[in-house]
Automatic annotation (TrEMBL):
InterPro entries: GINS_bundle-like_dom_sf (IPR036224), GINS_Psf2 (IPR007257), PSF2_N (IPR056784). This is DNA replication complex GINS protein PSF2 N-terminal domain-containing protein. Pfam families: PSF2_N (PF25005). Gene3D superfamilies: 1.20.58.1020, 3.40.5.50.
Length: 146
């Protein structure tokens, strides 16, 4: 008998009585915390070995403190902008060891331009996928950095 499944894997069965619910706000925040943001460290911090470091914004970031092959960040130097995952930026901000530089799309001028463009057309502005969660996390933790 011939295989008519197309050679792909069959979807995993859903247990009876189980329902798929949308992710919670904390789960969405968790996903957003893997996005990279720019920080300005206030202190020198040594190289940090992370369990994983898989989300790289672009190959050009390797000169800004990332080593994707080794899963490390740093060392971080005072007053030198560095890209780090949002979760690390939030942790350093709360400890008073860094300022978070708002993403370009989160500046007042950029937001005004996005609003003007959306009013003039029916299309949405090209914001990052998790812009709502990212902006909320940054604004809650670092309103003084805006």
């Amino acid at each position: 008998m011939a295989d008519t499944s197309g050679g792909g894997l069959a979807p995993a069965p859903v247990p009876s009585g189980a329902s798929l619910s949308p992710p919670s706000n904390s789960e969405l925040d968790f996903c957003a915390e893997n996005e990279f943001v720019t920080i300005v460290p206030a202190v020198r911090l040594p190289r940090m070995n992370l369990v994983t470091l898989t989300l790289m914004p672009s190959p050009a970031t390797s000169c800004l403190g990332f080593d994707n092959q080794q899963g490390t960040i740093g060392p971080l130097h005072p007053q030198r902008e560095t890209l780090v995952p949002l979760w690390l930026a939030l942790m350093l901000k709360r400890a008073g060891r860094a300022r978070i530089r708002p993403p370009e799309w989160l500046t007042e001028d950029a937001l005004r331009l996005y609003l003007k463009a959306e009013i003039a057309s029916s299309a949405f502005s090209p914001l990052p996928f998790r812009y709502l969660e990212i902006s909320q996390l940054i604004l809650q933790a670092a309103p003084d950095d805006m």
